[in-house]
Amino acid sequence: MTYVYDFDDRSGGGRELLGGKGAGLAEMTQIGVPVPAGFTITTDACRAYMAEGKRLPAGLEDELARHVERLEQRAGKRLGDHDEPLLLSIRSGAAVSMPGMMDTILNLGLSDVAADGLAKTTGNERFAFDSYRRLIQMYGEVVDGIDAHRFEQRLTDLKQAKGVQQDTELDAEDLRGLVGVFKSIYEEETGSPFPQDARDQLTRAVRGVFESWDNPRAQVYRRAHGIPDDLGTAVNVMQMVFGNKGDTSATGVCFTRDPATGEQGLYGEFLPNAQGEDVVAGIRTPLRVEQMRDTLPDAFEQTTATCRTSSSRSRTASSSSCRRAARSAPRRPPSRPPSRWWRRV
What is the mean pLDDT of the chain? Predict the structure, then answer.
């Protein structure tokens, strides 16, 4: 049985096999949207993991190693490299979206040595240690169950001691020191140092995603909404792209329609020098996506082009579905003029 598919592989399965995120990433990759390279570990693997007493199914680790090697070749970087490491994001993705599942882990692959190497290679020490402190916190929270407040309180304490309001006002030395504090918290809570082997980080993160499917909050949500317990979740592994390299990078969220009204058009927000959930976390006031036209014009043009591609694909798929539905529907006169009937469909 195949458990892992690259985003550009033809898996022959949809959301039930690849999960919602995995199916979306595969489709976007295949229509030419500039999605970072990566792969999806299927829901079959999760179900096998649960059925085998929370042991990785036979063959999965070998498949995972082969797909990591393929990703390394595409990226021109190696996972765990000391100078220019390949860094990964890890995300859960069940067929049905639901709370209680494992959150995102970003910057997986960083270690003490790799963070120093990344700082030297990029010439951006602040970026390297900002990324590392984020990894330690996210990994600690979602793989080892450490209370997020422990990390957040020490970050708040540091900003107060420095007399600043925003994370972005902390310099490289501040963040290097915060990494040391976060590592101490991790060791106090788990009894072990923060893992320094990138492949060990990845394996434990995959297990964490699988096990999050069966945590109490997820179980309660499934019962309340009639979601079967045997669906399982997929795991999406992607090459990192960075929004926290400075004011010329950003993170954001964008829609091709207004979520409130359904009106077509570019709608969203972005936050310069940020990463992951910062844009929706309330730590800073995000900017309207239209403002990117002035501050990051090249990125804005790429964003609008991507949205046009995605929107065009969605309209084509919807039109095709409507035609298939119309051909299979009983032949009977519509109860309203045909033009309005087609618009409703």
Answer: 88
